[in-house]
Design brief:
About 35% of the residues lie in helices and about 15% in strands. It has about 290 residues and is α/β, with parallel strands linked by helices. The protein has one domain: NAD(P)-binding Rossmann-like Domain (Rossmann fold), CATH 3.40.50.720. Belongs to the short-chain dehydrogenases/reductases (SDR) family.
Length: about 290
């Protein structure tokens, strides 16, 4: 991607647009790159089943397509973007794999149970859980963060990660894995995304704690995370003012935002046997920004 400003076809900027903007990926200009044209699959996930929250677009969509290329069957959890979810399903099926769409709110513990059960019923197993669903809301002042916004952000981002992990762990076997999407904001913070940054810090701590749990270790289940920097996904135009979208990612050392296609391969690595001695760790994909921890 070049340094030209990002735009969106429709005026869907937050906070005026509300909490969630469905089907926004189809309105993005330029469209995110889902898969690198030169990506070569090698069957790293052959025979595995993955459940991906927030899999309808952005990073989640890119993960789903690469997993399909690598031989996995995937179940996609999404909130309301039917058009984007159907698009992901078509892309997965084009790779010769199977895709189950599950619509619901990850912040609902009952839904988490149902989603895992549907995946098991459909495929008979679960090997990989990707906790990727998230929401964020741009706020310049702490006092402007309402109780509703604060609770919703935590409900989706960290509660959802907890609920799905708790349900999935019952079915995961030796060699299975959970991969959580944290963020560069967990390490650096973001003054306009204070509640979001807090949830991503919680996800990071949860990843490390769960990886050391005796039951998890005895089952030889690996728990890792990926911490993206500024990535061009629907979350950006749906939550930032236009003035911020236009300069999104230009403050990184690489002077550009990243693409979902540049993040998803890390999830392939972490889910594969190549990462068999890796747990409790985080991979940073952020355009050369150095963070500690």
């Amino acid at each position: 991607m070049n340094k030209d400003p990002m735009t969106v076809e429709k005026d869907t900027q937050a906070p005026e647009a509300g909490y969630r903007v469905p089907d926004i990926q189809g309105d993005m200009n330029p469209q995110p790159e889902v898969v690198k044209p030169n990506y070569k699959a090698s069957g790293k996930l052959h025979g595995k089943v993955a459940l991906i929250t927030g899999g309808d677009s952005g990073i989640g969509q890119a993960i789903a397509v690469l997993y399909a290329k690598e031989g996995a069957r995937v179940a996609i959890v999404y909130l309301e973007a039917d058009q984007d979810a159907e698009g992901t399903k078509q892309m997965v099926e084009k790779e010769g794999s199977d895709c189950l769409l599950i619509k619901g709110d990850v912040g609902d513990p009952t839904f988490a149970t149902q989603a895992v059960e549907q995946t098991i019923k459909k495929y008979g197993q679960l090997d990989i859980l990707i906790n990727n669903a998230a929401e964020q809301h741009y706020c310049e002042k702490l006092e402007d963060i309402t109780n509703e916004q604060f609770e919703r952000t935590f409900q989706t981002n960290i509660f959802g990660t907890f609920y799905f992990s708790r349900e999935a762990i019952k079915h995961l076997k030796k060699g299975s894995t959970i991969i959580n999407t944290t963020s560069i904001t967990a390490y650096k913070g973001n003054p306009e995304l204070m509640d979001y940054s807090a949830t991503k810090g919680a996800i990071l701590a949860f990843t490390r704690a769960l990886s050391q749990n005796k039951d998890v270790l005895s089952k030889q289940i690996r728990i890792n995370a990926v911490a993206p920097g500024p990535i061009w996904t629907p979350l950006i135009p749906s939550s930032f003012p236009k003035s911020e979208v236009k300069k999104f990612g230009l403050n990184t050392p690489m002077k550009r935002p990243g693409q979902p296609s540049e993040v998803a391969p890390a999830y392939v690595y972490l889910a594969s046997d190549d990462a068999s001695y890796m747990s409790g760790q985080t991979i940073h994909i952020n355009g050369a920004t150095t963070v500690n921890g």
